[in-house]
Specification:
alpha/beta; Rossmann fold; 7 strands; about 50% helix; binds 1,4-dihydronicotinamide adenine dinucleotide
């Protein structure tokens, strides 16, 4: 039997990058996948097809993870399409980097809404279902900069640190109902998000990483699979760094 056979997982912001790798990895482990992204476009459709070829039920939904009402309605739709929710992966995230001197209020608010409020929105929306099922695994994608901070990313770091506080609190709040909540803190993962950085900056980062390279989305997805599955049945309230021993 596969690790997630018969389970349903929601992955937010899954059309590309780390979210896409998580959706595919969980599907390979037998999970049915409901994934969201801002738009249900050709990229989302291609993921839906790829997942269906893995012989699981899969469906993409257009939903803004930063919007409270959008999250409630997408979770309602997922529940009526899939019948249950076992795993929630809060992956949707954006960067709007700038030194504090130049950071606008809009850049602050947007990053906090998409990265942090989204985690509240989605967790709250699935809570009742997981409570009724008396089981669930919630995995939030934080970042090493949420643990250690980073110049030029005060909004992003604050959102990712906030995710850690939320994760630890919800683990304590929902633990008695067999709902586990954990965060992962990826370091430098090669995706479109990091693809925006200049080549010299990327090489500078690689030099500082003891494993001397960036991570892949699949390397993040494998840790998420572990936390989603019963292999991690006594792991809750934790933050697992996936960073090649990098320190920020
Ligand atoms: P990405 O930019 O390649 O993908 C992010 C996905 O989220 C996109 O498909 C985007 O359309 C979607 N998205 C953006 N705003 C959304 C919203 N409001 N509602 C729903 N979906 C939305 O980014 P990547 O690199 O795959 O990052 C995924 C997560 O991992 C993010 O939370 C990011 O902060 C985190 N992370 C990434 C690291 C990296 O090095 N790439 C390092 C540490 C954390």
């Amino acid at each position: 039997m596969k690790l997630l056979e018969g389970k349903t997982a929601i992955v937010t912001g899954a059309s590309r990058g780390i979210g896409r790798a998580i959706a595919i990895t969980l599907a390979k482990a037998g999970a049915n996948i409901a994934f969201t992204d801002l738009f249900y476009d050709d990229i989302a459709k291609s993921l839906e097809n790829e997942l269906n070829e893995l012989n699981v039920k899969a469906k993409g939904y257009a939903s803004n993870a930063g919007d409270f009402n959008d999250c409630n309605s997408v979770v309602e739709n997922i529940l009526s399409d899939f019948g249950r929710i076992d795993v929630l992966v809060n992956n949707a995230g954006i960067t709007k980097d700038n030194l504090l001197m130049r950071m606008t209020e809009e850049d602050w608010d947007a990053v906090i809404a998409v990265n942090l409020k989204s985690v509240f929105n989605m967790t709250k929306a699935v809570q009742r279902t997981m409570l009724k099922q008396r089981s669930g695994s919630i995995i939030n994608i934080s970042s090493v900069v949420g643990v250690g901070g980073n110049a030029g990313q005060s909004n992003y770091s604050a959102s990712k640190a906030g995710i850690i506080g939320f994760t630890k609190s919800i683990a304590k709040e929902l633990g008695s109902r067999n709902i586990r909540t954990n965060a992962v803190a990826p370091g430098f993962i090669v995706t479109e998000m990091t693809g925006k950085l200049p080549k010299e900056v990327v090489e500078g980062w690689f030099e500082k990483i003891p494993l001397k390279r960036g991570g892949t989305p699949e390397e993040v997805a494998n840790v998420v699979l572990f936390l989603a599955s019963d292999m991690a049945s006594y792991v809750s309230g934790q933050v697992i760094n996936i960073c090649g021993a990098m320190t920020t």
